[in-house]
Amino acid sequence: MTAKEIFELRKQGRWEEAYEAARALYAEDKGLYACSAMFWTAVDMLRERANEDRMEEAHKIYLALQRLSKVMDDDKGWIRDAMKNCDMLLHKGISRKNLVDNGPEHLQIGVWGEELAASFLREKGFVILQLDWRSKHRDIDIIAQDGDCLVFVEVKTRRNCDYADPLSAVDYKKLKNLRLAINHYVKYHHIDNPFRFDVITIVGTPSGGTPEINHIEDFRIF
């Protein structure tokens, strides 16, 4: 498979296939295009492993990326920026694990809810691109790909509905902050394909049996 075909797999969100094809190509060819395919598919896989909380695998990929980045031209700074983002993903993954293990109970439930929502979306065929993406003091819980559509997802988790439905927390102020964060992401990444905003509400706890999950697609935000 050629580097061009590998990059086409990346565009389709077929990260695993692209990565394995790039490894095969790189084993036989250490040229510019093979190195580029190997580097960028490895970046994809590090992100996927970090999102799946497979941090040991993500760290091994990061070490390989460090070696590869030293032999690649980076006149536009793209390699440097990618390595910086990978470093942030590794640290964020470790921080999330520490939060789940040792953080305050309400924050543990929030992180558990986000990870449960990500698993729920994967089962529906979504490709998870990022968890807990931040823009200054604003954040987007999940960024995913649903076919050709980019999906921004807000996750609201509650122990129960005794005091308020979790959907009620997606209020005017929250929607305003989400609009700003989504606009920032779309402009920064030069997104020109369709995108939408979804809300996932979860009622339950990690040890409380089967949680209730409600997925609201194309929630009005703009």
A few lines on this structure:
This protein is an alpha+beta fold. It has 7 helices and 5 strands. Helix content is 54%, strand content 19%.
Give an overview in words:
The protein is α+β, with helices and mostly antiparallel strands and 222 residues long. The mean pLDDT is 85. The protein has a five-stranded mixed sheet with strand order 1-2-3-4-5. The chain has helices at residues 3-11, 15-28, 32-51, 55-69, 78-102, 105-123, 172-188, and strands spanning 127-135, 138-146, 149-158, 195-203, 212-216. The radius of gyration is 19 Å and the shape is elongated. 54% of the residues lie in helices and 19% in strands.
Largest sheet: 5 strands, mixed
Shape: elongated
How large is the radius of gyration?
19 Å
Low-confidence stretches: none
Q: How is the largest sheet built, in terms of strand order?
A: 1-2-3-4-5
What percentage of the residues does DSSP assign to strands (E)? 15-25%
Q: Helix/strand-derived class?
A: alpha+beta
- By DSSP, the count of extended strands is 5
Helix content, binned percent: 40-55%
Mean pLDDT: 85
Order of helices and strands: HHHHHHEEEHEE
